[in-house]
Amino acid sequence: MKRLLCGLVIVCALLFAAAAGAQQAPAGQRNIILATTTSTQDSGLLDVLIPLFEKKTGYFVKTIAVGSGQAMVMGQKGEADVLLVHSPDAEEKFMAAGYGVNRRLVMHNDFIIVGPPVDRGGIKGTKSAGAAFKRIAGAKALFMSRGDNSGTDAKEKAIWKAAGIAPEGQKWYQQTGLGMGQTLNVASEKQTYTLADRGTYLALAKRLDLVILVEGDRDLLNIYHVIEVNPARWPKVNAGGARAFADFMVSPETQAIVRAFGVDKFGSPLFFPDAGKRVEDLGK
Amino acid sequence: MELIVEGIRKAFWLLVTGDPEVMGITLLSLRVSGLATLVSLVIGVAAGTLVALTRFPGRGFVVSLINTGMGLPPVVVGLFVTILLWRSGPLGFLGMLYTPGAMILAQAVIATPIVMGITLAAMQQLPKKLRLQILALGATRLQLVWILTKEARLPLLAAVMAGFGGVISEVGASIMVGGNIKGYSRVLTTATVMETSRGNFDTAIALGIILLALAFAVNLVLTHIQQKERPR
Questions:
Q1: CA distance B125 to A1
Q2: What are the start-end ranges of the E strands in chain A?
Q3: Which 3 state secondary structure label does DSSP give A42?
Q4: From the CA of B74, how many Å to the nearest CA of chain A?
Q5: Residue intervals in chain A for CATH 3.40.190.10
Q6: Cβ–Cβ of B50/A2 closer than 8 Å?
Q7: Which of A11, A16, A43, A178 to mutate to test the interface with B (most CBs of B within 10 A)?
Q8: Which of A73, A217, B155, B229 is deepest in the core (most CB within 10 A)?
Q9: What is the torsion angle, in degrees rounded to the nearest 10, for the CA atoms of residue B34, residue B38, residue B39 and residue B44?
């Protein structure tokens, strides 16, 4: 009896909630779930692009801003339709496993190593990211890592690995497990080094007590690709919508908007459009 | 410190000018949390009354479960609801993930044990003789429940306030199952988190102040009703 009542109650709740949801959700296949990184949302770029896309095509985009790692897991499980991510090594594995189709280069900007103006590790002006990381490790200067499997985190781990250093578990190496903006705030408060994407850093710079110490290394390129989730693997995926969004991202008009984005606010672009280029040619 | 002043000024400005985006976010917060509280009220009062008025083996255990549920961590609820609503999950066919409906569901799950627990306590506090008296006057079971509910209306209003306060201020579940989608599933708490990570602290503070004002306004109304009907 009680179980029956309980079941009834749960069903009622679900119906109620479903009704409330369906009331305003645009019809099924007009929805696209875009799994992307926090940097594209926090920089404000998507706030400009998504409304344009929706107006043009009539699709409704649900932007879920998570780290690149989580975005790719969503794609892997068919919980997203299209990905806009910046973790090239992980993306290649994703493609090789057949989870995605049609991976296309969209844009790039770069990572920078920022830190307190005091620069205890003496990394300012270092030409390569690896050399800078070695100095930080040598000086045992505090370093704040994202530690969240995001694209930035993957890049940071790759630099440590290439430098032959295993920072995990060291006293001077700390992880926030948070997004880029929050990690920058923590790094600024605690006066530590961190690896950041230039866009997020510029957006927050006026409130941060951190300066750019290393930049311009080819290793520090931050490259964004758009990937459609493989509909052959997950029939529920909105393949048409994913294709439309990916096409939109590499279209000349969108690329022109990407080029101009942020110039008025920061004096320089936050992203450089790259549609149709080859990854090997970037940063030359 | 000047940030807080700046935030207060911004909150005031956003409210006075009726900024359409902030208004939309505020209304959605109110609607989602209001509906969730309503759902939790129906389930919570019914189930709480049932447990309060019956004796069955393992009752102590059930009551402990309900009391523990009053402190359900929203992120845990969010995680489970997300997994249930995934396209590949058992309720995936509803297509509900990343909708306001999913947020209502998650928030209702959070608020229901709160309402249930307070109802349970309120019903048990009523004098035992009252029940016997009502039954002696020939009331049916349904009439009994109705009269008892009316008798316990003051603590039940407290249950509404506690439930609503719990869900409108909750962020973990809302951001997971709603996705913080602009103009669609963005509520005051998730917007505050986002503006903070964007470094727009003044806007974040302003949203926080609006949230507090909203919660205060709702509670003011409920408290007014509650205190007006103070038993003699």
A1: 26
A2: 31-36, 60-65, 82-85, 100-115, 143-145, 173-175, 194-197, 211-214, 221-229, 272-273
A3: helix
A4: 17
A5: 31-109+223-275, 110-220
A6: yes
A7: A16
A8: A217
A9: 130
CATH number at residue B81: 1.10.3720.10
pTM: 0.83
pLDDT digits (tens, 9 = 90+) for A111-151: 999 999 998 888 998 889 999 999 999 999 999 999 888 88
Whole-number Cα distances in Å, B77 to A202, B118, B186: 36, 20, 18
Q: Compute the distance between CA of residue A16 and CA of residue B38 in angstroms, rounded to an integer.
A: 10
Which among B159, B88, B69 has a CA at the least distance from the CA of B123? B159
Size of interface A-B (CB pairs under 8 A): 104
CB distance A237 to A78 below 8 Å? yes
Instruction: Please check whether residue A52 is in contact with residue A80, taking contact to mean a CB–CB distance below 8 angstroms.
Output: no
- When CB atoms are compared, the residue of B94, B179, B181 closest to A18 is B94
Domain A31-109+223-275 sits in which CATH superfamily? Periplasmic binding protein-like II (3.40.190.10)
Task: Mark yes or no for CB contact B35/A20 under 8 Å.
Answer: yes
Q: In this structure, which amino acid lies at residue B5? A: V
- β partners of residue A65: A36
pLDDT tens digits along A179-219: 888 899 999 999 999 999 988 898 888 889 999 999 988 88
Percent of chain A surpassing pLDDT 70 = 89
| Number of domains into which chain B is organized | 1
Nearest to B33 by CA among B217, B196, B206, B200: B217
List chain B residues with CB under 8 Å of A20. 35, 100-101, 104
Among all residues of chain A, which has the CA nearest to that of B100?
A: A21
pLDDT of A199: 84
CATH number, domain A110-220, options 3.40.190.10, 3.20.20.140, 1.10.1060.10, 3.40.50.2300: 3.40.190.10
**In degrees to the nearest 10, what's the CA dihedral of A271, A34, B208, A196?**
-40
Considering only CB atoms, which chain A residues are within 8 Å of B35? 16, 20
Q: Is A8 on the interface with B (CB under 8 A)?
A: no
What gap in Å lies between CA A78 and CA A58, rounded to an integer? 22
Determine the residue of chain A that is closest to B43 in CA distance: A9
